[in-house]
Amino acid sequence: MPDETVLVINAGSSSLKYELRDATSGARLGRGIVNRIGHDGTALRYQVSGESPVERPLPGASYAEAIAAMFERFTEAGARLDGLVGAGHRVVHGGTEFSEPVVVDDAVLSRIDALSSLAPLHNPVAVECIRLMKEHDPDLPQVAVFDTAFHATLPWEAYTFAVPEDVAAEHRLRRYGFHGTSVEYVTGRAAALLGVEEDDVNLIVCHLGNGASITAVRGGRSVDTSMGFTPLSGLVMGTRAGDFDASAVLYLQDAAGMSTREVAELLERRSGLLGLTGDSDMAAIRDRAQRGDDAAQRAVRLAAYRVRHYVGAYLALVPGLHALVFTGGIGEHDDGFRAAVCEPLAHLGIEIDPRRNSAPVADDGGLIGEGSVPVAVIPTDEEAEIAHHTVNLVRGTSTPQTERTPDPSQT
Fold first, then answer.
1. Which residues of the chain register pLDDT less than 70?
2. Catalytic annotation on 363?
3. Of 22, 147, 335, 381, which one is the catalytic site residue?
4. Please, what are the domains in the chain?
5. Alpha-carbon separation of residue 34 from 145, 360, 365, 379 (angstroms)
């Protein structure tokens, strides 16, 4: 066990994921998850690197009990928790308050809590888990890393909605963007792969999973992204509709008598791939499509079309593009979907090598096409990015928050 470690915590609406990492190398030493917190069937699953996973029931456990079980399991596994340098927490929404990771004190925690109306399923549990960790060890630094932070560099014209400024200001209406921690990690890895300085790299990053987004990166900074005020907009996702005319929401409320909650349930949980096929898993849908299932074929075609739609738009925003990058569960593992996206884009210099595309992806990624616009697959590792920021902040080597500002030429 290394002398110094860092703990990474990702609190979901009913789950707690965590990893223990080497504070110097970033290597994963162990990981765990507590599922169905507060519900029947709550269970902890933990795996020390190189060993078989351990699972145990935690009936109806709360987040406090989940964290206690996490530390108990660490002790059983022989982890040296006296070497912890800090705990890094994934926080979904930082609003305009937070454009960089921060060490959490009571004032910061209160500011994060005040943003809960923008992410009601996620920010409150992140706040609760940070509080519980501070109670468990008041001297251990707690660091918040925000999914929205990487997109703090969006220029005004990219984040602004064309509504009256007073309404937008009062209700904090703007494009925030999400998946920023993943995109930031992938941007760094892509720059290294391509031999380009991170501050100079120009990319279109396709984070494709059950939740999916695309980000235009110019000079290492986010300049546009498909997710907006919430993670609903943009691409076709597992259960989310993606881009949807706001007037259609009003129509459903008036003509169909649907409540706001019912429309939200429709667009967030019953749409996307699930609404088109009855299945939210892209691998299963592509298998059905290959067997001739018409609904599955249409869904794949629509999902790929929406990706190409954004790629085309972002080509106009990122001159001197170094690469089109795929990441996320679908982006990393579904060679057929990557082909469905790229093959119609050959006229734009986006071409993939079928042999490379179907080969296993290396841990640090690789090129699958070297046309005039190279195409790369790079596995994401949000936990590594959170660990990196946590260690740097605790050791005082991080970039000050004031330095993550929009490109002056784009404001």
1. 1-2, 80, 397-411
2. no
3. 147
4. 5-146 (3.30.420.40), 199-380 (3.30.420.40)
5. 21, 30, 30, 24
